[in-house]
Amino acid sequence: MFVYLSKKIAIPNSILLKCISWDKENGYLACGGDDGLLKIVRLDSTQNQNVLNSSNQVQQQSNLSANQTLEGHNGCVSIAVWNETSQKLTTSDQNGLIIVWVFFKGTWHEEMINNRNKSVVTGMTWNGDGQKICIVYEDGAVIVGSVDGNRLWGRDLKNVQLSQVDWSPDSKMILFGLSNGEVHLYDSAGTFIMKLGLKAECTLVALKWFKYSIYPENPSLAILFTDGTLQLMKSDQDDNPILVDTQLKPVDCQWNHDGTILAIAGRSSDSNPGPNQNAINFYTPLGKLIRIMKLPGNQIAGLSWEGHSLRLAFAIDSFIYLAQVKHDYMWTCFSNTLVYHFHKRNKPESYVMFWDTKNNERYVKQVRQFIGTASCGDHCVLATRLDDEEIQISTQCDFGLILCNALGTPVDSKYVSLEPRMVAMTSSHVITASDTSFMLWHYRTPRSQTTIDIAGIKRENKEKIYSIETFLSGEHSLSCVTARDNVLIFGTDSRNLLGFNLSSTTVQFVGEVQLSFEPVKMSLNSNCTKLAILDHNGVLHILQLEVDGASFTLGSILSSVLFKMKRFERRDVWDLCWAMDNPELFALMEKTRMYIFRNLEPEEPVVCSAYLCHFKDLEIFAVSLGDVLKDPENPSKDDLVAMETKSLRDTRHLLEKVGTNEAYQFVEENSHPRLWRLLAESALQQYDLQAAESAFVRCADFASLQLLHRLKNLPAGSALVKAEVAAYFHKFDEAESIYLENDRRDLAMALRRKLGDWARVSELQNAATSTDLENKSTYNQMGNFFGDRHQYIQASRYYKLAENNEKLVDCYYNMEDYENLEKLVDLLDERDPLISRIASMFTSVGLCEQAVQCYLKCNQMKAALDTCVTLHQWNMAVELSRRIQVPDIASRLVSHSDRLLEHGKISDAVELFRKANCHKEASNLLFQVGEQAIKKWNDPLKIKKLFVLAALLTEEAKNTATQNSLTMERVSKFLDAPWRPAEAWHYFILAQQQFQQGKLVAVMATAVKLQDYTDILDEETVFSMLALASALNKCFNVCSKAFTCLESIPSLSQADRESYSLLALDIFTKYPPKDGRSSQIECPHCATDIQDWSNSCPECNNRFSSCVATGRPLMDTSLIWSCRVCKHSAAEHDVLTRNSCPLCHSPI
After folding, report:
1. What kind and span of H or E run contains 839?
2. Containing H/E element for 265?
3. Is the model's pLDDT at 698 over the cut of 50?
4. How far from each other are the two terminal CA atoms of the chain, in whole angstroms?
5. DSSP secondary structure string, 697-727?
6. pTM for the full predicted model
7. Three-state SS at 612
8. Where in this chain does the record put each IFT121-like TPR repeats domain (predicted)?
9. Quick check: helix, strand or coil at residue 243?
10. How far does CA 128 lie from the centroid of its chain?
């Protein structure tokens, strides 16, 4: 980060300023001061943009577009706050007068005035959405109002003096700062919540709670005290705040637009008076000091950030000072691609933009926690923090490195345990460093991977971590890094440089050198002979390095052999870029000027404030990153700056004014390949082939020399020469017209073929006679053109015309046009290999029937069967296996179902058999699962559901005309009577419900019915329920029989048998074994009187069906309801209120 003063605005009559505030949305700057001064100014929005003048130099505009003095205050204006949402300004003076100003028809006017006439306003602030304002007075009065001027509530806080106020980010709480140094927290309705824990014991200066933090883990609440103590808190509940001693006598502090920098204004606490006592300290949210900026003047009154934090405004004495801020953005540039990091408001994710500045194509990559980036050649590396706990545990790493190409596509990656605070990149390595250690990652690109595979080189997967304690004694921290080719250099906070050689397989330490300053940024030139170093104060130093061949061997004497300091210094430097093709050329930025140096001698400066990207062919490419990041998702080419060196500009001027021969001498004196190429092109435009050849030789442009060789073989001055020259200068339409005028349509078509302009080739062919082969070739190329751009509809048209079925298949597949793909299969011969390829395409999208038809057409039966199995179309698989006589399909089906059962996927296994049209096998599987569940006896309702589903599948099998059958290893005993187990568990659950509901008469009938299912249910449970039900109904004869059955169960233990005997003895000594209930009914068959709970007649032995709703026997068959699915019956009056069958739950 670099900050420098850029403008000074004087206030008329030397009136002292007391406050300053910047409207971050609209750019208006308000300042207030003595004698009721209130002024609003606005700087042109283009002041940060780079504008080319007539001399091809970049200029900046910085004029005031608005300058208005507002009248209304009589006392000193001490507070001014903006409401950016509604574009309103609220000001207050020493008399307590509050005025709200609104912008109307190009000027500012009074909208509202309020004067309490009791006390002085000490603080005002709008909430985050600009709908509420909180005003505090010195006497403890608090007023909260709305944006339209209505008073929402007010309160007088007793026995307190208020000095500061601020809203919480969510506008649900308000912080009040008291004059005694305390901070109280209230809710938005004015109810006291708590007192904040403060570490300092003095009065408050400022209270700032940032509203739109993109890093929720970072502190956002800043509390500043008069003794210079700064307390940073994550929230009002933070028990471990960060304390910073600013060593200032502070007057104000402000967060920047994204909460990543806190600026504190004040006077130096140095007891020795002197000039430039005013200072601005810049801190990170974690309290780390970024830099200190000294300011002129006697007394600073306040500061304010511009909307995107590119400028700062200071109120000092009777002047407004503006400072430019150059942030240390996380960005890089390579292969015409600009890569930069940005955030979206209120979103924690990081985003990385890959902007192809040449074609204006943009690719956005989302990264959870971005740390840094670097680039080299055609790739860049992104350093991130991992947020996937599984990856962190499995790799034992918390960070990741992602190697990307110009499209943002990852080509290699690496998990690392070392935090990559600094990242550098060479053509073969990525260097990452923390405070005390560094690591080298030998990355692989597709090209290098091919080379490694051919050579059979085995790459190490584990990278070694090097600690600087190994090379440098004492406590040191790394501050910066640079690398190029085989040279690696680190800078430390203890003013050391460490050199390393990367030419060997291991890192070789070269040595160290002591500096007189702390390096913060370094850069190597193209041949690693010079090192540029920037310190904290923006001073540039150039160090001479000695390189021996390909290795970086600097000798053993540190002072004279390792590094040689060149006597070169430049101040106020914030960016530097070496030329890629000349080690003696570099460009640097000094404040708002760019200087180009050749052999350490500067050219005349150019006004510019853009960040330098690269320097090649005497052209500097730069970008105004601050303007780009105002709308990072839609970067504009207007923010790109291309500048030429003086020698290149002079050469152009000479060629335009005096000609080729005169310019030759100048280029000879300032020799550079770009200048020779410029001279050669100028000579070629004048058809001076001899001069052009001489210049192309000097710049080693062999392709252009071949062009000249062809031109010499043509008649001098002929039209064909002019056409070739026009094509060389990309004047293709002119070249084509010349060819056509000279009846050389073949050359015109050849030119368009080279350019890939196949649409024009087609037009030229249609205008003349051409063969079918030529037409098809052109259609193929046009199809390829659209196909490469994923425009498959247009591509398919041309492939159809070219009869290129192979490419046509790919187009249909990418378009998901499976209907045309089917039609194409019908047109293909059965021996065409495309059919099997189309079949695999159908398989990949789950179209089993179409895939099978394709395989059958090309006679690949086994592949068709495998497709059915893969897509779980078992019905088709079984049918197909019969056709081709494959006996193992049944075993594959059963083994697959077994795997599903092992993972507890019962429903999937059943569905598997159903899809195979094996309903009987599905029901058999469910019966077996039910039998296993009976043994566990843990969920009767689940068991009933299993048996009901099994019975339904059995019924479905009976109703299916054609079904497949498999050989079953084990057949369930319930297949012959599928509804019996469902009935058993249904009546068992019904009896339990009747017990709980106290329906003693009903439970008697249900318990008697359960005797029919002792082969399914547990006998002890059944007869125990019957004994209990009969005893409660005083049917002791039935109860006696139930105890007899209990005692005769073979599997009953002796202890349980004795217990039942004792219980029976206890019961029947009190009650004789006779049925006490006398409720009887007539048997509908023989008119014999029987008990109403009997399920059979003892006289005629007729059995009665039971009601599935109540368990009672159905004597009257005229009033019964029968389920259409399970065929079970119930009394009509018992199902009137039901929506489904009590047994199978099918809708009634």
Report:
1. helix 834-844
2. strand 262-268
3. yes
4. 78
5. HHTT-HHHHHHHHHHHTSPTT-HHHHHHHHH
6. 0.69
7. strand
8. 977-1075
9. strand
10. 26
